[in-house]
Amino acid sequence: MKTIASAPLAENVMLPQYDRQQLKTRIVHFGFGAFHRAHQALLTDRVLNAQGGDWGICEISLFSGDRLMSQLREQDHLFTVLEKGANGNQPIVIGAVNECLNARLDSLAAIIEKFCEPQVAIVSLTITEKGYCIDPATGSLDLSNPRIIHDLQTPTEPHSAPGIIVEALHRRRERDLQPFTVLSCDNIPDNGHVVKNAVLGMAKKRSPELAHWIQEHVSFPGTMVDRIVPAATEESLAEIAHALGVADPCAISCEPFIQWVIEDNFVCGRPQWETAGVQMVENVLPWEQMKLRMLNGSHSFLAYLGYLAGFQHISDCMQDSAFREAAYRLMLSEQAPTLQITDVDLDQYALSLLERFSNPALKHKTWQIAMDGSQKLPQRMLEGIRVHLSRQSEWPLLALGVAGWMRYVSGVDDSGSAIDIRDPLSEKIAALVAQSTESERVSALLSLYEIFATDLVQNPQFVAAVEQAWQRIAQYGARQAVIETLKN
Ligand code: NAD
C-alpha cells in the first residue's frame, strides 16, 4: 500500500530538503503524542532544512502507541503536520525522526540501550504531568506510585520515564560515556525542576554516588512550549489525506502559531534551534508563568464553563460574546497583574490569544482541555488566586473557573447529560461527589489536598468566593453565571 514515503504528494506539500541519511539518533524522545509531532519535531526539522546536520530523533513510547509506531515505520518515519490558519492550510512532511521504539513492539532492554548510545545528547519528554510520577503536594518523586515502587525494586528493568532515565545515566556513567541533557517539554510549571526532582529522587534511592554524578553532569533546562495541537480525529486525518493525496495515520493538525522558549543550558550540545525561531533564554520561568496563566488558565475556564453550557469547541465559546469577554477579562484583569514578565506587551498577547482561540478550523474540544483538571488547576488558576489573596485584589472570574471545575467533575452538564470525566484523581473525586450533597460539594472537593493544599482551604475569603461562584452556576447555569459575573 502507498504511504507518504512512496506516493506522489500534492504540489503544495513541503518536504524535507536535507539528506536524511545523515541523521543519527542524537535526541531520544519519550511520548510521540500530538504535541511533540507538531512542535519539537517540526522545529528540529526546520533547523535541518536550514542547515542540514545529524540531529535525528528516536521516538520512544512506553505504554501505548504500538499501532502508531508500526505505521510510522511503514512510512520511513515520515509524518505530516497540517498547519491550519485563517488563510488556508499548509501540509508539511517532517523528516527529523529517524527511528522509533515501542515497549510492546520491541524489548524494554532495547529501549534502555537506545539511551546509552554514545552520540545521544538530549533526552526530551512530552509525557504529560502524570508521567513524571511526582507527588503534586510535595513536588518530590511519589514513592507510592506503583511504577516507582516497581522501578526501585528492579532498577535495571524500569517501567517509568524517571526510572529509565536513571538506569540509562547509570549505564553511561559505568561505561564512561558523556551524560545527556534532560529536556522536559511538558506544559507543567517549572518543568526543568520537575523532571530534575523525579530523576534525582529516583537516583538518590538507588545510590548517593550516582545522584551526585547526575547533579554534577546532567542539565535539566526549563522550557515554555506553545502551539495548540488538538488530538487527531477521523475527520482531521481524512482532511490531511485529502490535502496530501494519500493517507497518513501518523499525521496531526495544528494552528499556525508556534513558540518555544528554552533555557540555554545543554551539557552535550543541541540543534541550532534559534535558526527556527526558538528563543534561547537564561530564565524561562516568567515566560512559562505568562503562558500557563493567560493562555492555559483561560483555556481551562472556557473548557469547564463552556462544556457545561453545551459548547463542544473552544472556537464555539469564542463566538459567544459573554464567553469571549470573560476570557479577555480573565487574561488581562485577573491573570496579567499576577505575572513577573516585563518585556512583553500583555494587551497584545491577550488579543493574539483571543484570535488563536477563535480559529474555527482547529476544532479543539472543550472536553479534551477539561481532562486532568486536578493536575492543571494549581498552576493555571490557583497560583494567580494566591497572589490576589495576598494583595486583597479582585478575582471573580478565577473563582468562577474553580467552581466551574467543581461543577464539571460533579458529572452532569447544564442540559442534564452525564460528563465523561478523565482525571488521575477521578476515583477520589467521584467518591467525594457521591458522599456530598450539592450544598456540601464545595467543601467536599476542597478537601483534595493534592489540588488545594491547606493554605487555600483555611482562607475564608477563598472558600467564600468559590462557594458564591458555585451557587451562581447552580442557580443560573454556566452561561448565565458568566454573564452575571461580568456585571460585577
Ligand atoms: P498526547 O496524549 O497526544 O501524548 C501524550 C504522550 O505521553 C503519549 O505518547 C503517551 O504515550 C505518553 N504518556 C502518557 N502517560 C505516560 C507515562 N506515564 N509515561 C510515559 N509516557 C506517557 O498529548 P499531547 O497533546 O501530545 O500533550 C503532551 C504534552 O504536551 C502535555 O504535557 C501537554 O500539556 C503539552 N502541550 C500540549 C499542547 C497541545 O495543544 N496538545 C500544547 C502545549 C503543550
UniProtKB/TrEMBL annotation:
GO biological process, alphabetically ordered: mannitol metabolic process
SUPFAM superfamilies, per the entry: 6-phosphogluconate dehydrogenase C-terminal domain-like, NAD(P)-binding Rossmann-fold domains
Oxidoreductase among keywords: yes
Key words, A-Z: NAD, Oxidoreductase
Record-annotated Mannitol dehydrogenase C-terminal domain positions: 283-473
Start and end residues of each Mannitol dehydrogenase N-terminal domain: 26-274
Source organism, top-level taxon: Bacteria
UniProt enzyme class: oxidoreductase
A Pfam family of this chain: Mannitol_dh
EC annotation from Swiss-Prot or TrEMBL: 1.1.1.57
Keyword Oxidoreductase recorded: yes
GO molecular function, one term: fructuronate reductase activity
InterPro entries: 6-PGluconate_DH-like_C_sf, 6PGD_dom2, Mannitol_DH, Mannitol_DH/Oxidoreductase, Mannitol_DH_C, Mannitol_DH_CS, Mannitol_DH_N, NAD(P)-bd_dom_sf
Protein family membership: Belongs to the mannitol dehydrogenase family. UxuB subfamily.
Name this protein carries in UniProt: Fructuronate reductase
Taxonomic source organism: Citrobacter arsenatis
